[in-house]
Every structure is written in structure tokens, then in C-alpha cells.
Design a protein that fits this description.
Strand order of the largest sheet: 1-2-4-3
Strand content: 25-35%
Structural class: alpha+beta
Shape: globular
Radius of gyration: 13 Å
């Protein structure tokens, strides 16, 4: 389990990577949460078999907030999620 950083949608985003050898499984946390919600998964056999990536959404656990906070919305997070998947593929 390694904490890493990426620039996604012009924001510095923190994420946790299991660095497993199999296909990637993305983990997205809920409201008022973070990638730490998935800690138990990163210490499981799943993390060895698959590459787990848990993203900290903008403004969570050190991930940068957009300058215009009014852009944070459910539609924005949906688009952001797509950008995350594109970044890693």
C-alpha cells in the first residue's frame, strides 16, 4: 500500500495504490470520507491479486480543491471519476 500523487483535471490528487499485479479495481469513497475507508482491502489477498487504486476526491485527505468551489457537484464528480479512469488507462 503506497500513497501516491497525480495531476488529474489540473488538481494534485492523492491516491493509494496496492501495486498488485492483476487488473485494476478503482475504489471511490463516499461523502465526508477518504481512501482510508478501504485500508482493510489493501491488507487483503485482493490487493495482491489485483491493483487496487483508492482515490481521494478533491478536498479530501490532502487532495487539492478546485479554485472555484461552486464547481464541486455530483455532475462534476462524475466527470472527475471518468478522468481518473482515463488517467490510469
Amino acid at each position: 500500500m503506497v500513497v501516491k500523487h497525480a495531476t488529474i483535471d489540473d488538481l494534485n490528487i492523492n491516491y493509494v495504490d496496492s501495486e498488485g499485479s492483476g487488473p485494476t479495481i478503482f475504489l471511490f469513497h463516499g461523502n465526508s470520507s477518504s481512501a482510508e475507508s478501504f485500508t482493510c482491502l489493501f491488507h487483503s489477498e485482493l490487493a495482491k491479486k489485483y491493483r487496487l487504486i483508492a482515490i481521494n476526491f478533491p478536498g479530501h485527505m490532502g487532495s487539492q480543491l478546485p479554485e472555484n468551489l461552486s464547481t464541486l457537484s455530483i455532475p462534476y464528480l462524475g466527470k472527475f471519476t471518468r478522468k481518473v479512469i482515463d488517467y490510469f488507462n
